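Annotated sample (chain length 63).
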Amino acid sequence: MRCGIVSAPYGSDWPYAPGVKSARFATMLDDFALTDAQRHAINRGTAEALFPRLADRSRTAAE
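Output written by the structure step:
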């Protein structure tokens, strides 16, 4: 069974996962063949849809 990328948000489990392992996973994720839309969904789009206040905060920080 496969699930869509849009339902797979990224989470680092920091500070519980060792930094080296989190960095390695992030590098592997960056190197994986994904479209820009899939990468956005994993990195922040899914979380912003679940928690709209996060999207509002990121827009405010960018301005």
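Annotation: Residues 36-50 form the longest helix (15 residues).
Annotation: The two ends are 41 Å apart (CA to CA).
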